[in-house]
User: Fold these one by one.
Assistant:
Number 1:
Amino acid sequence: MKKLISFAFAALLAVGAFAQTVAVLGFESDNFCIEERTGTMSDLLTDELVGLPHITVVERKHIDKVTGEMKFQAKPYTDPATAKSLGKMVGADCVIVGSADVFAGTLTVTARTIEVETAKILYSTKMTCDTWSEFNRKLPDFARNLVSVIPVPERFTGTWTGTVQTDSYTDEYEITFEKKGKCTVRVTPDGNFGSPLTAKGTWSDSDDILHINARFKTDIARLKTMNWAAVYALGDDGESFSMNIRGEGDKLVRVVFAKTE
């Protein structure tokens, strides 16, 4: 999702799109030669972040509104505790704070990414430039580095149920996605005969492809090995997803899973 949003909708959209909400709290400088440019610098950084995947950006005017209403001082942002407090007020998961100065004719820009929930500094970086053209040239990589350490929220953690239905059978699946790539799969075979099959397995989610692997102790050939790898489509509310898997005769079967807990 690539969108600049107001903080009033930030939390809602972040949940729906599984993006992390980031607020650029601005750059500070004690150097009068560049002090007036710090606002432009933070705006340019914000623009770069808008185009990055899994990132939702809080609009600058809403940050200014909150700081104005709460009567924050002019330069509170380098303090992680204060950055945490302000980040919560604007609905951000992470905030970026920075400073700029000129040493021997070279512009030095430092920035830190702070996790709002813990006030932990996730990343700190520095960029040096001799010209503003060089600043603009280096800015895209600078922006990507600042958010590369932000963890993407888990899309699937929890329990989901779905049905694999073909012309010959209907199997009911219950998959519990756990952290660190582990999962538990329960399958009630067609006809509901016998006890449900249960197996521990692994899963991963990369480039919108969901991988699920598990092995069952069973004589049912189609269920002995579960080796799914397919592009998935997540529901708008984040409470369902669908994917096409290989069924009997290697035909594609569409499966829809709903989150139950």
Number 2:
Amino acid sequence: MGADEDLIAEIRRVLVAHADPERAAGQQAYMKSTLPYHGLTSPTLRTALRPVLAAHRLPDADAWRAAISALWDGATHREEWYAAIAVWRHRFYRTWATEPAEASLALLRHLVVTGAWWDVVDELAQHGFGPILAAHRATLTPVARAWSREENLWLRRVAIIGQNPHRAATDTNLLAFAIEGSIDDRDFFARKAIGWALREYAKTDPAWVGAYVRTHADRLSALSVREATKHLPHTAGTPASPPARNA
């Protein structure tokens, strides 16, 4: 077998070895997942994957993408999706993960569209798309702007929350543009993403967030406003519950 096949086989082996069928049923019900779970907790999953990822280093970016694709598309249990994200995020592959290669962006888009649920999309947004955007703003900003206008909710969510870890490096023009693409969407996950992104950026620039909420209070949902202003000081000029349309 090739390096990627060895890695995939070993990941699948350790997932089965740590399976907890009783826990798995509850996890699947909670996540409303069509894929079953093996029943690993997050700490158990990290512990199980750590030596496997260390021992099976992939030789190049093509093999890295192939391993992620194979784990994702061939998954029989949801933990294989989580393992695919762990491969994407692993420190060994940071250079490849932050290069704006067309093949990597196409793969990332595929993972988001087919994952289509918050547990995987939020990881891919903040730890997949976010680092590439931070490293290559000129190249990735047009991609983020395009995704923010997609019909697909999850691509729009990535565009909104992808800058959450960027703090002072956040491009507020891009943030506002991304929010605008979903501000009238009544879907819970769109409204929550808007509030979450504003809440995170308020830790860096509460005045900007306060001004944004005041300016758009007639269009932001109550949920978005509650999230955005959760930790916003009154000195930012925004009341705890500014006027907003119903959630």
Number 3:
Amino acid sequence: MTDIWKDVLAEIEQIVPGAQFSTWFTGSELDSAENGTVVIGVPNVFKIKQLQVKYNDIIKDALIHNGIEVNSIDYKVSATTKSRNNRNTIPPYPTTNETPATIKESRLINSFQTGLNPQYSLDNFVVCSNNDLAASVARNIIDAPGRKFNPFFLYGGPGLGKTHLVQAIGNELLRRDAGLKILYTPISSFYADFIKSLQNKKGDEFHQKFKKLDVLIIDDFQMIMNKDASQAEFFDIFNDLYQLNKQIIVTSDRLPNQIKSVDERLASRLTWAGAYDLQLPQFEDKCAILKSKAEYRGIEVEDEAIEYLAENVKTNIRDLEGEFERLLAVADLKGMTPLQIINEGYVSASRGKHDKVVSAKQVVDKVAKFYQMTAKEMCSKSRVAHIKNARQVAMYILSKELGMSTPKIAAEVGVKDHTTVMHGIKKINEDLKLNFGLRDQISAIREKLYE
């Protein structure tokens, strides 16, 4: 089986881009193939859905080309692949007394203070549809730092895993080469240290410290706005490191050109290798995240309990995990299962932290008022740009907050064809990727809904 699967993977690797292949197929194995039923083992539960949805046909064709009869393909988490995948990686939930041996050894060899938290690893970063491209880039950087994806600019809203992913890159690079000089620092710390160096007349020493780095990871870059001297210093450090092919990684809650007062030259350089975003997870993504956390913890959590949280927590991953931890804590305290705790009403995950139930009419009225028009005007047949945009925002919120079907949404906003609603929701989804003003507007409307 092993030799056959190697041939199958070699064929798939010719079709699937390298970064995606590394992300989704590493650690997989052909478990069995009998009477047309093929079973493939994978290291963790969140790879199963991706292989089923994105790569099942490719896998099937490759198996058939290598002489395997295929009527159906089943995927399962295999103990052997899980063990192999976890070997020499950072455990997902270390305690203060459980510092990973590999990171501990690295600290002994390299006394350089990295600022990295060993808790963050790629092994416990759940890859889903909202972050799979960014995760693929991360793996590519680990294989070849300072080359193709340099700088790596990662952006997205709070609580989506930016800090986790970039620190995971640093930890994995350090595990592979303990001699690397890696520094993770929030931009606020960079600013504070820079001001201190100027006060102590040690500006050159500050600059040289950064110039010696192999990898620089800057978090929360948006906080640099209105700090002209710090921007100038960072600009110089960026240029020095880039010329030396040193890896630069930057996170932000928005694109550089959308950060007030950021120098255009710096904004341009930060996205030389592209900008990669982390989006809000979909229902299936949230289920995968929670199942993965339960698997890592070695605990059983009913699917109904996981689906309840995934359906009702609509803010971000941080809040989702917080609700999950609260559910487990109450279940442990009461000696009940998570689903029993939910059914008994001991916990109640709210819609984006709100308990109030809103109606479709309230959504329409609030959106119209926010955009300074009447509901009748917004739901008219007008094609004026600002009215059409408000109408599409209402469609989006009715879909995301109330879970309404497109025909019902069409009736609420005064359009005849549900395909118009589908187009409107799709347009808002696409605009949200780059339009941070629109993100702020929808966030403000949501808050007003639950006042």
Number 4:
Amino acid sequence: MSTLSSSRNESGPPRRIVLWRHGQTAWNLERRFQGTTDIDLTDVGVAQAKRAARLLASLKPDAIISSDLRRTVATAAELAALTGLEVTYDEALRESYAGAWQGLTHEEIRARFGEQYDAWKRGEPVRRGGGELESEVADRAAPVVERAAEKIPEGGLLVVVSHGGTIRTTIGRLLGLPQGSWEALGGLANCSWSVLGQSVRGWRLLEHNAGSLPEPVLGDDV
């Protein structure tokens, strides 16, 4: 569970975190499990990043942090070019390492690692292909996000450029959700994002798999 929110001045405006997935890659199109393999964006992926960056720049972010893999570096660069912000890169924001699964399509993984794949989809702790547990991904990524969020002003916005699996585990950890329920957070489309907002009771999920600017929530209990 995040501890940052508990120290926030209740009268001050909340911080927000945008967790932004990278643009399309060739392996995304082929449904290959990328993991930590360093894959470039396609031309479509670059165009996706440019479009999303224009929207996110209008939110006037205070800081950008990113995985150091090429697909996230290229995505983050589009937002940095529009905002003038310097990107801080951290390998802790990389996608989950999935060992022998990396480079295989989901069909190939099912054929070779069927029991392991099914257990993962059920939300059980699995070292996919001999790689990382999802809890270990959260252990490395979530603290990086929290430390970066602590550095932005009250009412500020942090943009985190990362990968679908890492974003899901980070959201699950920051929301304090049981690990077995993390899979209930649907996947992010390329260059879509989720938004967390700080509250006195912890981080709240404000937007998920969004591709347009957040709208005010009217009639909620906020």
